[in-house]
Design a protein that fits this description.
With 298 residues, the chain is mostly beta strands. The chain has strands spanning 2-8, 16-22, 27-32, 37-41, 47-51, 58-63, 69-74, 78-83, 88-94, 102-105, 111-115, 120-125, 131-136, 142-147, 154-158, 163-166, 172-176, 183-188, 194-199, 203-208, 214-219, 225-230, 236-241, 246-250, 255-260, 267-272, 278-283, 288-293. A hairpin with a 4-residue loop joins strand 3 (27-32) and strand 4. The chain is globular and about 45 Å long.
Length: 298
């Protein structure tokens, strides 16, 4: 069971492709096809600032672990970093055309990882704005990147269904298989022992990382899974899909436990607040919604 907390219609002038809930500052950051990055107060979804530094659609946003900064990637090939307290751009890195499809912060906030059209994961230092490394997934277009919370692992997922897990030195420690299609999103568990992968094949897969074995393959969506978010409790997760729905999953019971129908078009992004009791979602319908989970098994 859930209830609507607040909703912002026409939050962007076009579809919204990415969202990140900055837990420590209680701000929500969104990126849209309208080339804008926007910052919202998570209490009431009032607009705090509009960051319009891109020339093409914003494909991904991420917030720093301390909640003070946001990073965005765009089809224009720029990585921009913004100070959330001032709304000003602090760093701009010209990474190259389609070299920044997706973006993630390292747990210590010193690095950014981006997924590239060539199938690699690029690491960028925020100290000097220079490339610090390139990890090759073996795939053909890196759609998803994610750091483990303990900082020991970096994952990249590709258009042709490959998930490569790298250690700090860029060595592949696991290659996860099973999906039949593009893998658009991944999420590590809070304890860094598991990873979830969401795919165009409509399946959510759950892997343990000690041996790289699959725990479960979960189905319930009727179209592509576009985003995956682990709940802070480590026991549940949320997925968003092109079927216009958000689903909550019990990872121990290996089943869907609740469906939220919040949008009129495909739901590109979903994220939890720090308590795990609220979910923010964004969609091609240009709306943002915050939902409170009243009971996860209803």
């Amino acid at each position: 069971m859930h209830r609507l907390v607040t909703r912002q219609e026409k939050a962007h002038d076009d579809g919204i492709w990415s969202v990140s809930w900055a837990a420590k500052s209680n701000l929500i950051v969104t990126g849209g096809v309208d080339e804008k990055v926007k910052v919202w107060d998570a209490e009431d979804l009032k607009l705090k600032s509009t960051l319009g530094e891109h020339a093409l659609a914003v494909t991904s946003v991420a917030t720093s672990p301390d909640g003070k900064f946001a990073a965005s990637s765009s089809m224009d090939g720029l990585i921009n970093v913004y100070d959330l307290s001032t709304g000003q751009r602090s760093i701009s890195i010209p990474a190259g055309t389609v070299e920044t499809w997706t973006i993630a912060y390292s747990p210590d906030g010193s690095m950014i990882a981006t997924g590239t059209h060539s199938g690699s994961v690029s690491l960028w230092s925020l100290k000097d704005s220079k490339k610090a490394g390139t990890f090759k997934t073996g795939g053909d277009f890196t759609l998803g990147v994610a750091f483990s919370p303990d900082g020991s692992l970096l994952a990249g997922s590709t258009h042709n269904g490959i998930v490569s897990i790298f250690d700090k030195d860029g060595k592949i420690v696991h290659k996860l298989s099973g999906h039949m299609g593009p893998i658009r999103s991944m999420a590590f568990s809070p304890d860094s022992q598991h990873i979830l992968t969401g795919c165009d094949d409509k399946h959510l897969r759950h892997f343990e990382l000690k041996g790289g074995q699959e725990i479960a393959s979960l189905s319930g969506h009727r179209s592509w899974i576009l985003d995956v978010a682990y709940c802070p409790d480590g026991k549940t997760c949320a997925t968003s899909s092109a079927d216009k729905k958000i689903k909550l999953w019990d990872l121990l019971a290996k089943e869907p436990i609740h469906t939220i129908e919040a949008h009129k078009d495909q739901v590109w992004g979903v994220d939890f607040d720090v308590t795990g009791n609220k979910i923010v979602s964004v969609s091609d319908d240009a709306a943002i919604q915050i939902s409170e989970i009243i009971a996860k098994n209803a």
